[in-house]
């Protein structure tokens, strides 16, 4: 590719945005890694680890794979430089096109995996609300279908595929308008993000809790609003760039904006799991019981099963004496040798009472 610098080359601005591009490229994966690490540590504290954690971990590994590929492309193609400052003779266009192709292929399933992780979490806390469960399953099916179709279009954006990075060798290749494909599926991502955002409100709207707790709970579960906003901004910017590409199109970090969207999606997916960690670091925020240490020994109580009833072999009511402690800690310190300690699975909706005359709480409410 030949490029002739303008006559006033020496008087032009020769700064670049590559440092900003690299900061975005690595900053948000680091933020996502911190969020996932805190989530896993929180689950280690409560001795819980589910399928949603596996999905988020796989997504995190793919995010770092995308980050490495993006870094290679940013450096080798001089992303952030003015077009008149790029030494085109030193750029391997076929190799950089392969990096773009690889980054796109890796990016597509990441958000899908994050949304499946969120859906599994919402399914678990939705209790006995069958309509909510059906809506969550529908969201998962729609999400998987959208990811599959998107991946298909990215994979076969040109036929033969090699024409993606070597158009000159395949002058008769048939290729899609990839800007249109990217913008379309960015818009679909925004729609699925919005659908996932509505579900938490549906789950908690009829809970018999205080307005403050309900607002906190909806806020925690709806932290994905930042993902919706970032996805919407990305879709708009991509559409504008495709419709009116600037002359100095390389002086931009738009290629790196997907890292912002994905990084914020990780934070949103991990935020609801942070209560055990926050309780440990700042117990007054969610203070509802007492924990402490005396003379170097733990003062945690052991929760005993005091009453259990079964109706027609399908439903079980369990009464637990928590000794006035934080209900959210019931999950901890289960001793296998004591048959009266509490055993439960992640698929069970946990209900309890603060005292024999108190109201019933659910596992959803324990988030706040």
The largest sheet is:
2 strands, antiparallel
Largest sheet: spatial strand order: 1-2
The CATH topology of the largest domain is Rhopdopsin 7-helix transmembrane proteins
CATH class of the largest domain: Mainly Alpha
Distance between the termini: 59 Å
Primary descriptors:
52% helix; 8 strands; single chain; mainly alpha; 2 domains; two-stranded antiparallel ribbon
Structural features, described:
There is one protein chain. The chain is mainly alpha-helical and 368 residues long. The chain has two domains: 13-281, Rhopdopsin 7-helix transmembrane proteins (Up-down Bundle), CATH 1.20.1070; 293-367, no CATH class. It has nine helices and eight strands. The strands form four sheets. Strands 1-2 form a two-stranded antiparallel sheet. A two-stranded antiparallel ribbon has the order 3-4. Helix 2 packs antiparallel against helix 8 and helix 5 runs antiparallel to helix 6 (211-221). The chain is elongated and about 70 Å long. Belongs to the SAT4 family. The chain crosses the membrane at residues 21-42, 54-79, 99-123, 135-165, 185-205, 217-243, 249-274. InterPro entries: Rhodopsin_dom_fungi, SAT4-like.
Give a topology summary:
Blueprint: H1 18-45, H2 51-76, H3 93-125, H4 130-155, E1 158-159, E2 174-175, H5 178-204, H6 211-221, H7 225-243, H8 257-270, H9 275-281, E3 293-294, E4 297-298, E5 304-311, E6 315-321, E7 351-353, E8 360-362
Antiparallel strand pairs: 1-2, 3-4, 5-6, 7-8
Membrane topology: Multi-pass membrane protein
Pfam families: Fung_rhodopsin
Transmembrane segments: 21-42, 54-79, 99-123, 135-165, 185-205, 217-243, 249-274
């Amino acid at each position: 590719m030949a490029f002739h610098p303008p006559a006033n080359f020496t008087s032009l601005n020769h700064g670049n945005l590559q440092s900003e591009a690299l900061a975005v490229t690595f900053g948000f994966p680091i933020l996502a890694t911190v969020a996932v690490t805190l989530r896993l540590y929180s689950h280690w504290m409560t001795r819980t680890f589910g399928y949603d954690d596996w999905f988020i971990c796989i997504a995190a590994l793919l995010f770092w794979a995308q980050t490495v590929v993006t870094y290679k492309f940013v450096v080798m193609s001089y992303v952030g430089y003015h077009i008149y400052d790029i030494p085109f003779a030193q750029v391997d266009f076929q190799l950089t096109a392969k990096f773009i192709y690889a980054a796109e292929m890796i990016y597509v399933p990441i958000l899908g995996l994050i949304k499946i992780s969120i859906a599994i979490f919402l399914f678990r806390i939705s209790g006995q609300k069958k309509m909510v469960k059906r809506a969550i399953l529908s969201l998962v099916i729609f999400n998987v279908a959208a990811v599959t179709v998107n991946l298909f279009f990215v994979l076969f954006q040109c036929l033969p595929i090699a024409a993606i990075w070597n158009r000159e060798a395949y002058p008769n290749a048939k290729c899609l308008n990839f800007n249109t494909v990217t913008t379309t599926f960015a818009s679909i991502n925004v729609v699925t993000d919005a659908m996932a955002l509505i579900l938490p409100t549906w789950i908690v709207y009829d809970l018999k809790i205080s307005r403050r707790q309900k607002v906190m709970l909806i806020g925690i579960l709806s932290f994905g609003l930042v993902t919706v906003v970032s996805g919407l901004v990305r879709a708009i910017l991509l559409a504008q760039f495709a419709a009116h590409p600037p002359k100095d199109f390389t002086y931009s970090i738009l290629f790196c904006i997907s890292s912002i969207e994905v990084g914020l999606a990780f934070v949103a997916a991990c935020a609801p799991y942070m209560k055990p960690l926050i309780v440990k670091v700042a117990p007054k925020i969610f203070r509802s019981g007492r924990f402490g240490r005396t003379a170097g020994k733990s003062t945690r109580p052991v929760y005993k099963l005091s009453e259990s009833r079964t109706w027609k072999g399908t439903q079980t009511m369990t009464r637990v004496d928590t000794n006035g402690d934080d209900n959210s800690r019931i999950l901890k310190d289960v001793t296998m040798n004591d048959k009266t300690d509490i055993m439960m699975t992640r698929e069970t909706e946990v209900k309890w009472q603060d005292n024999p005359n108190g109201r019933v709480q659910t596992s959803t409410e324990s988030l706040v």
